Amino acid sequence: MNGSLTLVLGGAASGKSAWAEGHVKSLGLPMIYVATAQAFDDEMNTKIAAHRKGRGAGWETVETPLFPAAALRGLPADRAVLVDCATMWLSNLMLNEMETEPAVDGFLAALAASPAQVTVVSNEVGQGIVPDNALARRFRDAQGRLNIRLAAQADRVVHVVAGLPNVLKGEL
């Protein structure tokens, strides 16, 4: 089986992560969950715990808030990988004042080189209002560019709205 890339986009609380988890499970391969979230407060701790519980058993978890490309290197072809999510990763980079473009280039290169079946979850952030501060506008623009590049590289792109998948590119 050759590696493939699936991009799952959606708004906040759209059901994109749950759909992506179901998609990865349906591949019938050993599963790896590449987690990019960091818990800085009780709310985020609760959200991460709910995601873990919702996923259920059978996942190997790799927590890497800043370097998901490293987690993708060297994976065998017989793995189904879920990177959740590109949005948290990008915000982590920006909050740590790291250069985003070289990191994005490295992430995309690792995705292209991976023989595994990789699914990446990312937020669609460009459909709301214009943010009121410079950092939020830089983030929105950087996220838009990342999503465009991920979608161009992906074999399939699925936009999830209200838990329902809409295929934008490729086939399920």
Spatial order of the strands forming the largest sheet: 3-2-4-5-1-6-7
Instruction: Calculate the mean pLDDT score and round it.
Output: 94
Q: What oligomeric state do these chains adopt?
A: single chain
List the helices and strands in order.
EHEHEHEHHEHEE
Radius of gyration: 15 Å
Tell me the major beta sheet.
7 strands, mixed
| Strand segment tally | 7
**In what range is the share of β-strand residues?**
15-25%
Structural class: alpha/beta
Q: What general form does the structure show?
A: globular
CA-CA gap between termini: 16 Å
- Measured as a percent range, the helix fraction is 40-55%
Low-confidence stretches: none
> Number of helix segments?
6
Structural features, described:
- The chain is of the alpha/beta class and 172 residues long.
- Helix content is 43%, strand content 24%.
- It has six helices and seven strands, in the order βαβαβαβααβαββ.
- A seven-stranded mixed sheet has the order 3-2-4-5-1-6-7, sandwiched between helices.
- The protein is globular and about 45 Å long.
